[in-house]
Amino acid sequence: MRFSVAFWHTFRGTGGDPFGAPTKMDIAPDGKTLEESNANLDEVVALAKELQGRKIRPLWGTAQLFMHPRYMHGAATSSELGVYAYGAAQVKKAIEVGGFYVLSQNMGVYARFLEAAVAYKKKIGFNVDYFVRYDWDAATSANFLRKYGLAGEFKLNIECNHATLSGHSCHHELETARINGLLGNIDANTGDPQIGWDTDQFLTDIGEATMVMLSVVRNGGLAPGGFNFDAKLRRESTDVEDLFIAHISGMDTLARGLRNVAKLIEDGSLDELVLKRYQSFDSELGALVEAGKADFELLEKKAMEWGEPKVPSAKQELAEMIFQSAL
After folding, report:
1. Residue 188 and residue 314 share a domain
2. Does this entry carry the keyword Lipid metabolism (predicted)?
3. Torsions phi, psi of 183, nearest 5?
4. What digits encode the pLDDT tens for the residues 14-42?
5. Which of 57, 170, 203, 230, CA to CA, is 20 to 30 A from 161?
6. For residues 276 and 313, is the Cβ–Cβ distance under 8 A?
């Protein structure tokens, strides 16, 4: 299990609103010009390389394209061409200093922006995965990537709290990304489903962690991605030790989730229930349906031949009991 921490809004957090004007780059301060900002970044990257020699490495990197006032109307989606170009220059520099990658989302010129990022990666031989962190849901993002021919170049960075905001569970979003071959990384946080904003809390719910890890196991892991603690302390947690408690708890919660998944797989009862639920498709007609070869005429003929279908119980309560018993 590969973990990373959010330096800028967790370890450097003040308890205030992070989305205001008095903000800087993640690891290097903004300069008065783009050239000065790039020079500042180069200087800090030199220190980062030194730290990597001590086995401290970034899980992925990102260009900060929303906090500065210039991005008030977006970056790759800005209506101002100068802002669009400035954002592209920041992304170019982020690619050059190395790491994995995350962007935002929209349409049209944004797709051209992503295409340019892919082209530059290939031009300089930067062999990494690109991650898109969506702002609605995984299905919308998958459709966007397919529409613009980018599905083979990008994977999704699923954020559990964003799943909450889109009206889905984190497991739903992970599975949607997984079955579309797009699951690349997880922002391991959670939110309050009763309110409508991004609370970015550390994950402590063992049940939710088990569902998260179930998707990860089904995906065959996340490498080269991992679990990024894109989470903040609660404002009343003011001691330095609270940072350590929160991250330790987050890692332990996911580890317990993984152990629970192992129990469920070894027991096999839950998988057996799912197989039984769909066993009617394990037939000649079912195979035709799944292959797209069963037309309405054939289905009507079978419906008349079989008469009123007998619908078996889905055993939902039994499934829930089996799941809860593993926690």
Report:
1. no
2. no
3. -80, 115
4. 666 555 554 455 677 788 898 888 888 88
5. 57
6. no
